[in-house]
């Protein structure tokens, strides 16, 4: 199949998955357009930091010929981990050696910038919120946007995240609540304004865990720290709690009550953070979500397999999906068959990670002294990783 007879390729969503797909397809000589809902990359908070793994996120960037750009801005030291009990006792501390590139961190905004800049001019059409997509004939689909614009695609890829509007073409599944809600808070200019928070967090991530709750503090680039205050609460807690999330003082008072028996050093994460709290209830698609391959349409990333963020795999899988799909399209002699093969591999790796993320959620946000359990889990994981490394170096 030549590049021309695939026809018009449209990606919906300029997240890490959609951008990676567009980049690799362009490198392979394809014409591609992305429609993106947001009018600008900075229009809303881009979220925090992401760790990119060797065989998925990093592999995608190598295939996209952007690995050096990534290395220039990533933070290998961001892999440091600290686990603390609610009394403030440190149970576990891992400081990664210099130049360890297993899972370096990068701010989501920086990652998107690298990918965006690599695309041909006018690839991303911003400010286009997909309202509706319908199949017409011969595998073509008609897309309708909220500004009245319409377009027709021969191949459409839904990379439009958790609440995908493309998903209904392949699956009837809808995201279900995971059982936990995060409230995102932030410290800007943290080293100067809050050196004690800077010290508590360290260079990477600090988890304080107990009693079905968690305070996760993560160092981001640009002298910032993000905090995820995590609670095991019902789906409609945000409304039922009566908290007005636009009133920071009200949010603080309520949260401080919930954590009232935690050490003051940890409560500072709520007490002195910036005046902006963003509630994020966590959703996931069914673990074994699958569908029959449809002509002219497929999904990748969160649109295909949304999971809770406790395996640290979401962005990595989105970028790996994008890479494998781009290569499947490039090498295709029968596009529907190539998409089918891509989907089968995606289903199986997504199911594994989704299951892991749910198991980890139950471990981290569990009753009693969950910090101790998580500490044992981290130690075992590190021993396993060390053993693997040793075996690899023996067999190499
Ligand atoms: C609090 C939190 C922490 C996380 N931490 C990690 C982590 O440490 N590591 C990790 O690997 N993953 C993490 N994740 C998950 C990760 O963010 C996602 O898995 C990843 O962003 C998925 O990428 P994507 O490209 O599939 O979708 P997204 O990043 O969601 O991008 C979708 C894009 O589509 C656009 N869009 C949506 N609807 C429309 C529409 N109707 N029309 C047009 N455009 C549309 C959106 O604006 C967006 O730009 C975390 C998630 C959360 C919520």
From TrEMBL:
Keywords: FAD, Flavoprotein, Monooxygenase, Oxidoreductase
GO biological process: response to antibiotic
Tree of life domain: Eukaryota
Transmembrane spans: none
Pfam families: FAD_binding_3 (PF01494)
Alphabetized GO MF terms: FAD binding; monooxygenase activity
Residue stretches making up the FAD-binding domain: 9-191, 295-330
Family annotation (PANTHER family): FAD DEPENDENT OXIDOREDUCTASE DOMAIN-CONTAINING PROTEIN (PTHR46972:SF1), MONOOXYGENASE ASQM-RELATED (PTHR46972)
Name of protein: FAD-binding domain-containing protein
């Amino acid at each position: 199949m030549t590049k021309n007879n695939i026809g018009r390729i449209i990606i919906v969503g300029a997240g890490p998955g959609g951008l990676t797909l567009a980049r690799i397809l362009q490198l392979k000589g394809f014409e591609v357009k992305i429609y993106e809902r947001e009018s600008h990359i900075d229009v809303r908070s881009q979220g925090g930091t992401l760790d990119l793994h060797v065989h998925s996120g990093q592999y995608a960037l190598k295939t996209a010929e952007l690995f050096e750009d990534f290395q220039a801005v990533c933070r290998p030291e961001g892999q440091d981990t600290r686990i603390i009990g609610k009394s403030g006792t440190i149970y576990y501390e891992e400081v990664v050696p210099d130049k360890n590139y297993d899972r370096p961190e990068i701010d989501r905004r920086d990652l998107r910038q690298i990918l965006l800049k690599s695309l041909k001019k006018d690839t991303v059409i911003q400010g286009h919120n997909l309202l509706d997509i319908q199949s017409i004939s011969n595998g073509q689909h008609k897309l309708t946007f909220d500004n009245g614009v319409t377009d027709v695609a021969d191949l459409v890829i839904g990379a439009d995240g958790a609440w995908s509007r493309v998903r209904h073409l392949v699956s009837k599944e809808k995201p279900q609540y995971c059982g936990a809600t995060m409230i995102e808070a932030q410290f800007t200019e943290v080293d100067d304004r809050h050196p004690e928070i800077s010290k508590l967090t360290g260079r990477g991530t600090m988890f304080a865990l107990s009693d079905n709750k968690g305070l996760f503090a993560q160092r981001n680039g640009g002298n910032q720290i993000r905090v995820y205050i995590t609670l095991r609460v019902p789906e409609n807690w945000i409304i039922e709690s009566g908290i007005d999330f636009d009133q920071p003082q009200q949010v603080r008072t309520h949260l401080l009550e919930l954590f009232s028996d935690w050490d003051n050093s940890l409560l500072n994460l709520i007490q002195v953070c910036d005046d902006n709290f963003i509630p994020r209830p966590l959703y996931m698609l069914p673990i074994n979500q699958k569908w029959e391959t449809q002509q002219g349409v497929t999904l990748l990333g969160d649109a295909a397999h949304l999971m809770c963020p406790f395996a640290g795999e979401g962005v990595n899988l989105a970028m790996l999906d994008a890479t494998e799909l781009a290569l499947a399209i490039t090498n295709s002699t029968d596009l529907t068959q190539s998409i089918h093969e891509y989907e089968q591999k995606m289903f199986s790796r997504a199911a594994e990670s989704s299951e892991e993320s749910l198991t980890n959620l139950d471990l981290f946000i569990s009753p009693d002294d969950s910090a101790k359990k998580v500490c044992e889990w981290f130690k075992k994981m590190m021993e396993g990783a060390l053993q693997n490394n040793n075996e690899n170096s023996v067999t190499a």
